[in-house]
């Protein structure tokens, strides 16, 4: 879930990325070892409290970032409701919700650069196999830079569809131009990278 | 900045192809002025010439050297010699945050990371944008994106700066502000444009037509001919788009 670093400063922004990732790993394992549905309230309220440390506005942004999760939670509720196993459903849902929320918290309070620097350190041993960690870090940066551009291009195309079509919802016809414009963007970015010295190792 | 005299851009028998089409068909030039305008209509090959001068495309034959360095082959030398500002900042910004964007070119020039970051911050501060470092590049306004692209290039202090119609679509005050920044640039400026007004105060103007050099001289000599021809054609503009 691509929620970028929050502009709202929280105490967690000052914590080093490595420490946050390690804590995330420990807490996730701990959450997965909980077997009683009632105990699931513990990580859930804990996570909520952590968000609240950043203030109400920050917590609300965190809640918004969880929106893509609701369909999955609804699916779990329906399935386990039908199979009369709501306890297990609550357990699974709680796990999903608290671990994703915690992971989002780390994403929202860690600068991308620190995250990538951390990744490069973890991947550094791969250099023995001929993988160049610098390139992986560069690629991550590109994905994060271009995802909003691509979304925007999609919005533009559906807008120009709407401007000249009777049906408001754009059809499958915009898929091809979207792909072509993505390839075109890739050419332009390649040129920009070359203009400033090529892909770093 | 370190540039003392104007740079020397030498273009020898340059031919460039885009697919099957020959876009630049044999240009020879020696440019030693500080402010050079390249005029031409859409599709005349002026943008391709700019890309060849920046070493971004490999010519079919011939070559471009700046102060003796072959800029298509020797990319490391090219970084200090030439920078290019693209028409659309969206095509130039590579990174998700401002500091990374400005720092990238400096790292590529061989500065160690902390030094590159220090220079990048100094460059941002020089333009009164010291607080931009952590900002997301996607969230900048159009004018701010243009400025970021310009700062990223100026931080590298290239001897030659090529501008490929960079400020089209900006409002008047924003464009004026950016032009003021450029006016104080001590190195060589090569401005690609279809609008003669932009290069009226320059030292030398080249008129590119159909991939070749149509005219070359001071603006007072080249611009009136260019304008006369563009206006004459305007009556039947769609005949040859």
Automatic annotation (TrEMBL), chain A:
GO cellular component: plasma membrane
Keyword flag Membrane: yes
Membrane-traversing stretches: 20-53
Location(s) in or outside the cell: Membrane
Record InterPro entries: ABC/ECF_trnsptr_transmembrane
Broad class of the protein's primary localization: membrane
This protein's record includes keyword Secreted: no
UniProt membrane topology term: Multi-pass membrane protein
UniProtKB keywords: Membrane, Transmembrane, Transmembrane helix
Domain of life: Bacteria
Family of this protein: Belongs to the CbiQ family.
Name by which UniProt lists this protein: Energy-coupling factor transporter transmembrane protein EcfT
TrEMBL record, chain B:
Keywords, sorted A to Z: ATP-binding, Nucleotide-binding, Transport
Transmembrane segments: none
GO cellular component, as recorded: ATP-binding cassette (ABC) transporter complex
Molecular function in Gene Ontology: ATP binding; ATP hydrolysis activity; ATPase-coupled transmembrane transporter activity
ABC transporter domain span: 9-235
Presence of the UniProt keyword ATP-binding in the record: yes
Highest taxon in the source lineage: Bacteria
Pfam families: ABC_tran
Keyword Nucleotide-binding: yes
Similarity annotation: Belongs to the ABC transporter superfamily.
PANTHER family, sorted: ENERGY-COUPLING FACTOR TRANSPORTER ATP-BINDING PROTEIN ECFA1 (PTHR43553:SF24), HEAVY METAL TRANSPORTER (PTHR43553)
Name the UniProt record assigns to this protein: ABC transporter ATP-binding protein
């Amino acid at each position: 879930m691509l929620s970028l670093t929050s502009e709202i400063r929280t105490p967690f922004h000052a914590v080093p990325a490595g420490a946050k990732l390690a804590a995330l790993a420990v807490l996730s394992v701990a959450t997965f070892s909980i077997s009683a549905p009632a105990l699931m309230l513990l990580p859930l309220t804990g996570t909520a409290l952590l968000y609240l440390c950043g203030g109400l506005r920050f917590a609300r942004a965190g809640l918004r970032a969880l929106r893509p999760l609701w369909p999955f939670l609804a699916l779990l509720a329906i399935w386990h409701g039908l199979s009369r196993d709501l306890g297990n459903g609550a357990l699974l849902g709680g796990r999903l919700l608290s671990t994703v929320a915690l992971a989002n918290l780390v994403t929202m309070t860690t600068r991308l650069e620190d995250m990538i620097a951390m990744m490069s350190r973890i991947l550094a041993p791969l250099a023995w196999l001929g993988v160049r960690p610098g390139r992986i870090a560069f690629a991550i940066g590109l994905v994060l830079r271009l995802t909003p551009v691509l979304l925007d291009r999609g919005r533009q195309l559906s807008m120009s569809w709407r401007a000249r079509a009777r049906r408001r919802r754009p059809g499958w016809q915009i898929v091809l131009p979207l792909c072509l414009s993505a390839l075109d963007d890739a050419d332009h970015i390649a040129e920009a990278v070359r203009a400033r010295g090529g892909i770093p190792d | 900045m370190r540039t003392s005299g104007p740079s020397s851009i030498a273009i020898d028998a340059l031919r460039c192809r885009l697919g099957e089409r020959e876009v630049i068909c044999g240009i020879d030039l020696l440019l030693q002025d500080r402010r050079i305008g390249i005029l031409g209509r859409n599709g005349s090959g002026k943008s391709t010439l700019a890309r060849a001068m920046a070493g971004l495309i490999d010519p079919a034959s011939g070559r471009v050297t700046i102060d003796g360095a072959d800029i298509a082959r020797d990319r490391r030398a090219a970084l200090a010699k030439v920078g290019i500002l693209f028409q659309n900042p969206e095509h130039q910004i590579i990174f998700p945050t401002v500091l990374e964007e400005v720092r990238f070119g400096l790292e590529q020039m061989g500065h160690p990371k902390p030094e590159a970051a220090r220079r990048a911050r100094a460059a941002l501060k020089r333009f009164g944008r010291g607080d931009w470092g952590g900002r997301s590049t996607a969230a900048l306004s159009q004018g701010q994106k243009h400025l970021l692209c310009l700062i990223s290039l100026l931080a590298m202090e290239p001897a030659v700066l090529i501008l490929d119609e960079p400020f089209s679509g900006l409002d008047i005050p924003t464009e004026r502000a950016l032009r003021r920044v450029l006016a104080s640039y001590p190195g060589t400026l090569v401005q690609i444009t279809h609008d003669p007004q932009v290069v009226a105060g320059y030292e030398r103007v080249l008129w590119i037509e159909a991939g070749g050099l149509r005219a070359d001289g001071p603006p007072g000599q080249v611009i009136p001919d260019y304008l006369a021809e563009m206006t004459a054609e305007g009556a039947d503009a769609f005949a040859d788009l």
